[in-house]
Amino acid sequence: MKSYDVTALGELLIDFTENGTSEQGNPILEANPGGAPCNVLAMLNRLGKKTAFIGKVGDDMFGRMLAGEVEKSGTDISNLVFDERVHTTLAFVHTKPGGDRDFSFYRNPGADMMLKKEEVKDDLIKSSRIFHFGTLSSTHEGVREATRHAIEVAKQNGCLVSFDPNLREPLWESLEDAKREIAYGLSKCDILKISDNEVEFMTGTTDYAKGAAILRETYGIPLIFVTLGKDGSRAYYKDLSVEVSPFLQEGTIETTGAGDTFEACALHYILEHGMESLTEENLKELLTFANAGASIITTRRGALRVMPTEDEIRELIAQRQ
Question: What φ, ψ does residue 56 adopt, rounded to 5°?
């Protein structure tokens, strides 16, 4: 028996997001808890799952704030480490017209980069049904070693391994480094959530069906989700290919957390149904639920604190039917 549904390892940081302008015309920035892995876990908590997080923050004002918010969301933070020397990572998010984003990171170094292999609690991973990670914990040597160790512990103990590349180009010394580390993640995962631009980055094609086929053939990934932004999402599983349209809303503010919400909804469905014998109907139901969850979060500022409930997702789906 496993004690946790999902344990994730990776970055926990502050997203400074734009929230209007001051009387002097200066942008007002709001400090939102951020970091893709904890966003995923927060959404899973909303859906009734039990989660744990492995990572590091600074022993500073923002680090303590983040620890409190993640714990409040329902995630076990017994393996959240505080660094006394390196500050919590900060990200400044500029939202473009239409909701897409540019990121500026203050992370040279940031505390999330300082996690060490020996600080990872293996028992937490062994006790989990799914282990989830991205590539922001593979940008630098020390935390990369910790991440790879955690992945191997997960593989050795029968966990499903979930991977979201979550490419952030400014954080890599070179795009070749990024490509190499994403390829490593692809070689280890059972469940892949990848965006359209990341498919193009890794395969060189904007034909996403072709790109998904390349990824499956090269890395043997059982289940692939491709998120297409305003064009919805697709799932590739065995000989099945399923596409579901998005839930577009007039109230969309920004896309922060949309992919993480999608990821969590997908993992929730896998936890409920398994992934041994998914049908076309299963995949359609999964994508519909995940698209609806992702749509709701785009109408809210931030992510971790404001994840939708299952009832809200079901209500949005019911409006389409």
Answer: -145, 140
Instruction: Assign 254 a pLDDT band (cuts: 50, 70, 90).
Output: confident
Both structure tokens of 269: 């469905």
Cα dihedral 256, 259, 262, 264, rounded to 10, equals -90
Question: What is the crossing angle of helices 61-73 and 36-46, to 10°?
Answer: 30
CA distance 3 to 185: 25
Kindly report whether the peptide bond that precedes residue 27 is cis, defined as omega within 30 degrees of 0.
no
Decide: pTM greater than 0.85. yes
Q: Are 32 and 15 in contact (CB under 8 A)?
A: yes
Query: Tell me, what's the pLDDT at 118?
Result: 98
Integer Cα distance of 234 and 192 in angstroms: 12
Residue pair 42/304 in contact (Cβ under 8 Å)? The answer is yes
Q: Are 79 and 121 in contact (CB under 8 A)?
A: yes
Q: What is the DSSP letter of 236?
A: E
- What lies within 8 Å, CB to CB, of 295 at 6+ separation is 246, 247, 248, 249, 252, 258, 316
Phi, psi of 218 (to 5 degrees): -75, -40
